[in-house]
Design goal:
Blueprint (H helix, E strand, L loop, with lengths): L6 H9 L4 H9 L6 H10 L3 H5 L3 H21 L3 E5 L7 H6 L7 E6 L2 H13 L5 E4 L12 E7 L9 H11 E10 L6 H10 L5 H7 L3 E7 L10 E7 L23 E3 L2 E4 L4 E3 L1 E2 L2 E2 L7 E2 L3 H10 L1
Parallel strand pairs: 1-2, 1-4, 2-3, 4-5
Antiparallel strand pairs: 5-7, 6-7, 8-9, 9-10, 10-13, 11-12
Helix pairs in contact: 2-3
Length: 307
């Protein structure tokens, strides 16, 4: 994924208040946000979401926002929750923390290692047990039907033009429900719709879901609005009952072939592909491009232990 600028230059521009994705779009002369631009933008801003939680007004807003998600999850009686595009876990930690009853498994993934690193620290500080991994929305390193509820919180938004690909992956890893909380392209005010157009955000996700044959059981303006020019709308997709359910301790999968991964020496191995996916500072790096060929990984580790 090639960028028109160095990351050092982009970090300097971010510190001066520049919008990184807009800067890259202009340089690339494109009207979409490329995967490289999205990754660069989110990784550079890592830490800013956690820092914002020190502001009481912002924190209270996030707590209200997360509480609204928790109430929906409670109404659906789910036992496992995954946030796609979890960022720094500032939403997930409080969704989990405000559920009426404990759940068996809470997890999240994001394409930015830096944001996951901040997210782990934040979740720990909030005393929330959540498994956070590095993963790509378009090749989610999670087994089919692994989580009762999969939700997004403004994480699909920059991927205009790839809506259906994202929805297919979210639907695949969900067992019962997919909840989308994204910019309000249908119900938003003029300021929100202007922002969606300026930033090239996704639109009409409910239409894309219906085009794929999914059952949309609710579609409306979301209960909580933190900024008047960034309203959210709620789309709930219900998935028909599935026979096979992934075990709670066996939900990680190879992003390339979706085979269950073997954990060995703190890393993750796909026997089907022969790829080793490393863990950096305890964060499983489960991007397709992170895999290292090592077909003898398991046997060499075993033989070393016998020496």
């Amino acid at each position: 994924m090639k960028l028109p600028f160095s990351m050092k230059f982009l970090r300097e521009q971010f510190s001066q208040g520049q919008n990184i994705m807009a800067l890259i779009r202009a340089a690339d002369e494109t009207s979409i946000n490329t995967p490289a631009a999205i990754l660069a933008s989110y990784d550079i801003q890592a830490g800013s979401y956690v820092a914002a939680m020190s502001n009481d007004d912002h924190r209270n807003g996030i707590l209200r926002y997360a509480s609204a998600i928790s109430r929906i999850a409670d109404s659906l009686s789910v036992n496992s929750i995954l946030e796609a595009g979890v960022g720094e876990a500032t939403t997930l930690a409080h969704v989990i923390g405000q559920l009426s009853a404990p759940i068996k498994l809470a997890a999240g993934f994001d394409i930015s290692w830096s944001r996951i690193a901040y997210g782990n620290r934040y979740a720990t500080a909030q005393r929330v047990d959540a498994s956070l991994i590095l993963g790509d929305l378009f090749s989610i390193p999670i087994a089919d039907n692994a989580f009762d509820l999969v939700y997004t919180s403004h994480s699909l938004e920059p991927n205009r033009g790839r809506e259906k690909d994202a929805l297919r992956e979210l639907y695949r890893v969900a067992r019962r429900y997919v909840i989308l909380i994204e910019p309000a392209s249908s119900f938003g005010n003029a300021a929100t719709k202007k922002r969606i157009a300026e930033h090239k955000y996704c639109e009409e996700l409910q239409r894309h879901a219906k085009d794929l044959g999914y059952s949309v059981i609710e579609h409306r303006l979301f209960d909580v609005c933190l900024k008047e020019n960034n309203q959210s709308e709620l789309t709930i997709i219900e998935k028909p009952p599935v026979g096979k359910r992934t075990r709670d301790n066996d939900w990680l999968a190879c992003p390339t072939c979706r085979t269950s991964l073997i954990r060995n020496k703190g890393h993750f191995y796909c026997e089907e592909c022969g790829l080793i996916y490393p863990s950096i500072d305890g964060i499983p790096c489960l991007l397709s491009q992170s895999g290292v060929m090592g077909t003898h990984f398991i046997e060499t580790e075993s033989s070393r232990g016998n020496q």
